[in-house]
Amino acid sequence: MKRLLLLPLVTSFVLGNTDYVTVKISDDLAYAYTTDSGKKIKIERIQDTSNRLTDDYTKTSRPCPPFCVQPTKIHPEIENIAELELIDFMENKVAKNRGIIIDARLKSWFELETIPSAINIPFPVMQNASTKKAELIFKILGMKVESDGRWNFENAKELAIFCNGVWCEQSAHFISGMLKYKYPTSKLHYYRSGFQGWKLLGLTTIVHKEIKK
Amino acid sequence: MLNKDQYNQEEYNNYYQQEMQGAEISQGGSGESSGGKGAIFAVLGLIILGVGGYFGYKAFSQGSDNTTDETLVVQHEVEQPSASIQVAEESQGKEETSENSPKESPKNTQVEQITHSVQSVANDNAQMSPEEIAKVVQMVMTQMNKNPEEIVKETSKKVESDTALLSALSDTDVDSVKEESSDTKNLEEALKSIEETQNTTVKQSSVKVDTYNKVNVESSSSTDELSQLSSQISSLMEENDITPTKTTSSSSSTKSYTESIKKEVVVRSNEMRIIVVKKGDTLGKIAKRAYGNVMEYKKIYRANPDMLNRPDRIYIGQKLRIPK
């Protein structure tokens, strides 16, 4: 009986040896692809099963305020997403230029490490934006100004917004700035687990500026 | 007096009889020889069957030995808490009543234990092979041959281990107990070996992959839409820096929030500072550079458990975390 059970396992291992992934993203997803800075990036999890987070994003306690635990819903009409939805967003929205992943953290955080294909719009930029500035940003994001001056968000891109995680309110500040200028809530998605949640799963990250000494 | 024809007839009859006898003899001989051949074939067949059966049994018993043994062991581990505690209770009870029936306790306990084991094995493995049955019988025989003292010792040992096991199990749920079943255990072992093999193949095949699964990218002048959009936003942000917007009521609170989280950026950048090992580097030299003290190498060593097995073994090109 034991042999019968092991046989297909060993066979599948031998046959699929070339493309075997020990730590998959999900049961039916071993890895995914996206682009960042014109470079094709493979999104996968760290395959070393003994790997553990050490320094960054293992800190349990930061002073609150400002680092307070965020509510589950940032806005009743804004959808919360998790890692699988974010990867799906990359594959189906970002790849087809219909969506953008926004890293709402300060530039210095973004440069240290971020999620692949994310672009950085620091939350103060959006929160403190004037109407003119908001219009410029929204235009870049696909909004059109009608002849009567009305802002048309029909072709505006969907945004998946994240910051550091459940203890970080940078996304909340960014989203409040977006909502101030009536960016449609249906086009906003909040990745609450944020970068810490991404790191915790050992998913691929992007470093724009490596710190060396 | 015989005439020539009669003589010939007799001679013919004799000859015929002789021929017939000869034929019978030769038939008997050929019958014997064919019988001999048949016997040889039968013997050969038996030998082949015997050899085949022997190797087949050996191969099967090697496989089934482990299975049955492991099954039994695991069942002992899993089932013994209730079973052997019953035994313990019974033996305690029998100690109390030992004055009435002093000879009953060890043997009865033994018999009950064996019966229980056999029942449990039979219940769990409804389709037991003859070899497995033989194993069970063998186990029963060995149990029967043991001294009562040994059994008492074993029982007390089992009670101790079962108590420990019970206390451990009390913190776990039923699923985790099920995971200890022999098949799962074997599968886990197989998976582990596969995993180890895979890890080595992964390590061999992807030497260039960063341990931390980080990809370094440089902001290039790429022409794809995302890069262009990113650069447009960046230029807008720079413009924003040059011509700050009007100070609103919320901007002051944002400013204070921004200032407070900027400090955390500094902390974090210190925490995740990474150096690349160069030729001639040692942990001591790196510690001297980073902290001004050679003895701080332990700090670096502790911060890189996944990269360093020994503090005196670092490699050129290795990326090490240097905590603050």
Keywords summarizing the entry:
heterodimer, A: 213 residues, alpha/beta, Oxidized Rhodanese, domain 1, two-stranded antiparallel sheet, 7 helices, 10 strands, globular, B: 324 residues, mainly alpha, Membrane-bound Lytic Murein Transglycosylase D, Chain A, 10 helices, 74% helix, elongated
What would you say about this model in short?
The complex is a heterodimer of chains A (213) and B (324). Chain A has 7 helices and 10 strands.
Share of helix of chain B, binned? over 70%
Q: Which sequence of SSEs, written as H and E, runs from N to C of chain A?
A: HEEEHEHEHHEEEHEHE
Report the sheet-strand fraction of chain A. Answer: 15-25%
Structural domain tally of chain A: 1
Mean pLDDT of chain B: 62
**General shape of chain A:** globular
**Beta strands of chain B, count:** 3
CATH second-level architecture of chain A: 3-Layer(aba) Sandwich
How far do the termini of chain B sit from each other? 142 Å
Number of helices of chain A: 7
Distance between the termini of chain A: 58 Å
CATH class of chain A: Alpha Beta
Order of the strands making up the biggest sheet of chain A: 3-9-8-4-5
Please tally the β strands of chain A and state the result.
10
Largest contact between protein chains? A-B, 75 and 70 residues
Low-confidence stretches of chain A: none
- Based on secondary structure, the structural category of chain B is mainly alpha
What class, by secondary structure content of chain A?
alpha/beta
